[in-house]
Amino acid sequence: MLEIISGGLHTTVQDMGRQGGQSLGIPPSGAQDGFALRIANLLVGNAGGGPLVIRNDAGAAGLEITMAGLKVRAQSDLLVAITGADMRATCDGKPAPRWQAFVLRGGQNLAFGMAASGARAYLAVHGGVDVPLYLGSRATHVRGNFGGFKGRVLADGDILPIGPATAKGAALAGRRLRPELTPAYSGKQRIRVVRGPEAHLFKPESETKFYAAPWRLNPKSDRTGMRFIGPELSFRPGRPRYLIEQAGKDPSNIVIDPGAPVGTIQVPSGVEPIVLGVDAPTIGGYARIGIVISTDMSIIGQLQPLQYACFVRTSHDDAVAALKRQEKLISELSVIAL
Amino acid sequence: MIYDKPLFRTLADTALNIEFGDEVSIPLNFKILALDSAIAAHPPKGLLETNPQVRSLGIVYNPLVTTRGNLIAALGELIGALDNTATVASRRMIIPALYDDPWSRECAAAFGVRNNMEYIAEFNDMTPRQVIETHTACDYWVTGVGFVPGAFMSYAMDPGKRIGAPLYRTPRTWTPARLLNFGGTTSTIYPLRVPGGGQLFGRTPLNIFEPGQNNAVFHDSPVLAKAGDRHRYVAISRDQYNDIRAQVEAGTYDYQITEGLFDCADYIAWLESLGEPADHRDPDSSWSLE
């Protein structure tokens, strides 16, 4: 069992999310940075699950810790790993390792400070956080009030059940990710984008601007949508009359349509592009200038408020190649055992 | 307009849209529901999920198992084999609603805009009373389910009674659960407290999403609506609202749903008799296709 001493700013139970919810309006949820959670699970010997949205299994559940403040106490010896954002975690006051499995002794406290780089840290526990499955996943969808621990953000005093340990568990302590594979979260980030179905509705110079401009993450962003502050984008004239009647005068309104994938970029009225996160609506009514490729949703999930990012146009084939490279990385070949 | 051939739109590496047109058209939606049924009967390799909506079918697929090219070829074969849809499965459901309710007014005020019902009335050259009469005067066809868990898109089946209003320019950060709203001519209900840009005009006491699945109607799924359903709204008083809401919260409310088949051909013939164009092509615009 893992006792929550302080829930911090926004901590939830997440795995690699639900499937089959698109036609019900149910988003995948799951880790916003799937790479980090899957590596954490790999290090502690849990099922890592597959890539978000297309995963064959949801993998073990861990904790997604946003920006700051989680404090937990182990009620018995637990093999854990911390990945993702650097929140200067300490184990009974001493620095805790990142991207490495270690034993948290019964009675020891693990405390996370403010994120020095990145926005979301992940805590995996050998055996996994053992909350009930809801529609095939343990992921929390806070707005829907389902999944995870009682469908909500973790609060002080919660006691999380941990799944049974396997015999090999103790031998995994010290396993760590190859240091060259550790992502760097500071500085201006590059986010790769495939052109969207309504990109041609923007003026060509606006589409150019979208890829050239520096953007900053709006602090109001969350797992539903990441908003970006930057230049205003404008739309081509000549909108047909039937569309004005059906979808309204604003040129960014389209007849409502599946925004299906996480990563869809909508630009309501040309102001503040919104990248749909893992808890986002399954459909949208605004022009989609592009779609963030699936692997780069991990990068977006680690942007701090007001951090700079740029959008880089890429092809569908390169997006698939990036996914294949990532899947090769999330394997024992990337782990250094002691 | 309705495209001569469906377009396959790439949505990065794990999704596609099959787009049949760019407009709101219930006959167009019949084709999408027919294709969705065909896919369910013969799912192509690597296809994980479908998402039927008013003018397009969303596809989620695994590019580690198939390629976009192979998937499009398989879907193209299914589209080629589609018959003209004669009937589709369609349930009819009664939805009681308290129109021009206090929660919609409060929410509008909280975001610094006037009562949305007044705006909707003005936008449609009607009084608020006429908006209510029009919204309760014909069935609404559910073209797809989505946005947030349990939300759905629906359109007045009588084109003469199709009213609406544009979405907010900047979406709200929250809306109370179960509010009726328009986004364009789309009529829908927020199932949960969520952000959104729809113009608010009423509240239903019914749960359209029930994660705890307490009522028998939610036995198989926490979501009430299905693509292809018909909804009929009924205006109720505040007392009736309170009464029904208490039954819904107790899990005892008897949702009024009739199962059935809908005759698409009859409906299309009726639309034609009204002189309703099947396709809104605009010769002066090259706006929607690229």
Polypeptide structure, described:
The complex is a heterodimer of chains A (338) and B (290). Chain A has 2 domains: 184 residues, no CATH class; 140 residues, Cyclophilin-like (Cyclophilin, Beta Barrel), CATH 2.40.100.10. Chain A has 338 residues and is of the alpha+beta class. In chain A, the strands form 5 sheets. A 7-stranded mixed beta barrel of chain A has the order 13-20-17-18-15-14-21. A 6-stranded antiparallel sheet of chain A has the order 7-6-9-4-1-11, with no helix packed on it. In chain A, strands 2-3-10-5-8 form a 5-stranded antiparallel sheet. Chain A is elongated. Chain A contains 5 helices and 22 strands. Chain B is α+β, with helices and mostly antiparallel strands and 290 residues long. Chain B has 2 domains: 86 residues, Gyrase A, domain 2; 168 residues, Beta Barrel (Cyclophilin). The two termini of chain B are 13 Å apart. Classes of the chains: A alpha+beta (338), B alpha+beta (290). At the A-B interface, helix 3, strand 16, strand 19, strand 20 and helix 5 of A face strand 1, strand 2, strand 3 and strand 4 of B.
Tell me the CATH superfamily of the largest domain in chain B: Cyclophilin-like
Q: Mind summarizing the main beta sheet of chain A?
A: 7 strands, mixed, barrel
Spell the H/E element sequence of chain B: EEHEEHEEHHHEEEEEEHEEH
Q: Which strand order do you get reading across the main beta sheet of chain A?
A: 13-20-17-18-15-14-21
* CATH architectural designation of the largest domain in chain B: Beta Barrel
Question: Helical residue percent of chain A?
Answer: 10-25%
Poorly predicted residue ranges of chain A: none
Secondary-structure-derived class of chain A: alpha+beta
Task: Give the count of helical stretches of chain A.
Answer: 5
Report helical residue fraction of chain B.
25-40%
| Strand composition percent of chain A | 25-35%
